[in-house]
Amino acid sequence: MAIKLGAAVVVAFALYYLCAASLIGQVAAQSGEATYYTPPYTPSACYGYDSPPSNGLFAAASPDIYQNGAACGTYYTITCTGATSGQPDACTGTPTVTVEIIDLCPGCSEPGFDLSETAFTQISYESVGRININYN
Fold first, then answer.
1. Which of 28, 65, 108, 114 makes the best surface tag, with the fewest CB within 10 Å?
2. May I ask which residue range the UniProt record assigns to the signal sequence (predicted)?
């Protein structure tokens, strides 16, 4: 009886793990677009005239991501996947950056981000201007 119960627990745990892993994979990355903006970065919709993060890695989010301020302070990992114009070599050798949402970008494509100049140039080049991304 103990052996059968132990095997049942192992099977139940394995099924739980597989279900959880499949759900994580479904929400892991979404696609969108990113642009960049330059100083001044204040005021921001999230923090008014408070200074933005000193590391320069922050962004404004499109309304669907911003969700009336619910995204303020949330971190997103942004990965450059190429230029929207099809320009080759749009991504740098470090195509991923993590940013904090500090502002709303009402003019951004949905879903999309307006990255700080520092964040954008970590994953792409200013001359590219608009890139396709994956984010989570």
1. 28
2. 1-29
